[in-house]
Amino acid sequence: MQLEHDLVFGGPAPRRQSIPVDVRWGENVVTVGGGAPVRVQSMTNTDTVDAIGTAIQVKELAQAGSEMVRITVNTPEAAAEVPAIREQLDRMGVDVPLVGDFHYNGHILLNQFPDCAAALSKYRINPGNVGYGAKRDTQYSQMIEAACRYDKPVRIGVNWGSLDQDLLARMMDENAQRPTPWDAKRVMYEALISSAVGSAERAVALGLPANRIILSCKVSDVQDLVAVYTELGRRCDYALHLGLTEAGMGSKGIVASTAALAVLLQRGIGDTIRVSLTPEPGGARTGEVVVAQEILQTMGLRSFTPMVIACPGCGRTTSTVFQELASKIQDYLRAQMPLWRDTYPGVEDMDVAVMGCIVNGPGESKHANIGISLPGSGESPAAPVFIDGEKVKTLRGDRIAEEFQQIVSDYVARRYGRAA
């Protein structure tokens, strides 16, 4: 009976109900929460003082599909350049909202550089390092008051690497008085959640509306993240930003982020995500955007770019032709998407199959919108092409890759063009 239930009712749980937050620049309004699509965001790794270099990377991230881009605002020099970055983006026709990442001195920068405060679309505040001792409440209040003054939403982002140590110490003392004390990890969970929710409540008391608040509680362990956000989602109805902090590099970072975010998204938890990958040396920063999009798309939550279905290869597929073709087609589709989004609405839902032999090749190709089954070892040097389930032609020779790419281009124009 359980199997039958899963087959009938499979899919993510209903989205957790959260308060919608509008993050805007100009005419571009990105709504987070409240049933809006799960948003993708990213962060630059340029020196913000380099306004041109930062604007270029923001543009690259936005073109890759990042719906908000965060920049570091850590010094007076960086704060002074934020308006120039925004101006440069506007000249390039890039209306992606900019998020200012503040730590330690945000209260000073937001008040001493009003043009910076106005040019940003959202502020990120870490309640663990806004100030210490008697200064904490004053400096936190100054940042919230700036958000109120400029009508900016705020992400209150708690991180276990910079958790409020006074709060943690107090909670450890309280825990020691329990008849049955919690273990240290549970206390840490409670401190993270209490810091986030308590900071949000204080912001509301200072005049910041609940629909201007997004919360996050980031940790670097998959099971910890799932536990913390599951409880955080139960205790409040603020929009939630998901992310595994310091996820790592390469496959480790991708796998860890996917494992954590997929569980939470499947439970209906999360309104916006960031995949915090460490780029490979010389690697593009846009990689984290691609991974975030692919997490959402493979889970069926959103569509961003046509999906390429390709077999892994085996002893039947000693030729690398299908691997090279699959790679070329995938790169081509992603490169075209900035142009196709408006011209060919719906193309992001297209499936393309590039298969390496006759075992599953024809079947997978028929199930895709468009597919090709390349010859495997010992098979006839012929590659049947299928469009919408029907075989339309067979390609042969040395130009199969070029001919198939042209077939894909023609299909996109015919199937998704506005005239269609």
Shape: globular
Q: Please outline the major beta sheet.
A: 8 strands, parallel, barrel
The amount of beta strand, in percent, is: 15-25%
According to DSSP, the number of beta strands is 17
Helix tally? 14
N-to-C CA distance? 44 Å
Radius of gyration: 24 Å
- Helix and strand content put the structural class at alpha/beta
Q: What is the residue-mean pLDDT, rounded to a whole number?
A: 93
Strand order of the largest sheet: 3-4-5-6-7-8-9-11
Share of helix, binned: 40-55%
Query: Would you identify the regions where 5 or more consecutive residues have pLDDT less than 50?
Result: none
Would you kindly provide a brief summary of this structure?
The chain has helices at residues 2-9, 51-64, 76-91, 106-112, 114-119, 135-150, 165-176, 184-205, 222-235, 250-266, 287-298, 321-343, 361-367, 400-416; strands at 21-25, 28-32, 39-43, 68-72, 98-102, 122-125, 154-159, 213-218, 239-242, 248-249, 272-273, 277-278, 307-310, 351-355, 370-373, 383-387, 390-395. The protein is of the alpha/beta class. The two termini are 44 Å apart.
